[in-house]
Amino acid sequence: MIPDARELLAGLLFLGFGLAGLLIGRDYASGTAMRMGAGYFPWLVSLALCVLGAVLLVRGLASSRERVALGELFQARPGLSIGGSVVAFALLLPSLGLALSTLLMTLLSGLARRRAHLGELTVLGCVLGLFSVAVFAWGLGLNLPAWPV
C-alpha cells in the first residue's frame, strides 16, 4: 500500500506523457511567442503536463488520505470502455464524420460509469459533436469530414 495511489499514478501518467511530448518534439522549430513554430504549442502543452504530473506526484506521496492498494485501482470496465471509445472514434471518423463520431465516443466512454444516464450522455455528445465541428472543421478549417459521407 502507498499513500494516495490514485494521485501518484495520475502524476506518473501526466509526467510520462509530458516527457514523451518533450522528447518527440525536441527537433521541431519552436520559434517565439510572436512567431510560433511547429513545436511551440506542443512544447507548452508537454511542459504543462510535466508540471501537473510533478504536482500530483508530490501530493500523492505527501498525502495522508485513505491508502488504496494498487490492485484496487485497475478495473476492466472503465479501461475497456474509454479505450474502446477512442478506437471506435478513430475508426468511424472517416465514414461517420466528426459530429456523429464524437457523439458515439461520448456514449461509449459513458459506459465507464456504473450508473450512466443515457439522456445526459446523448445531450453531452451532441453538444461536444457540434462544438467539435464548429471549432475544428469550420473554425480552424481542418480537413476533417464534419458529417457522414
Automatic annotation (TrEMBL):
Keyword Disulfide bond among record annotations: no
Keywords: Membrane, Transmembrane, Transmembrane helix
Annotated InterPro entries: DUF1468
Domain DUF1468, first and last residues per copy: 9-145
Pfam families: TctB
Transmembrane segments: 12-29, 41-62, 82-109, 121-140
The protein's name: Tripartite tricarboxylate transporter TctB family protein
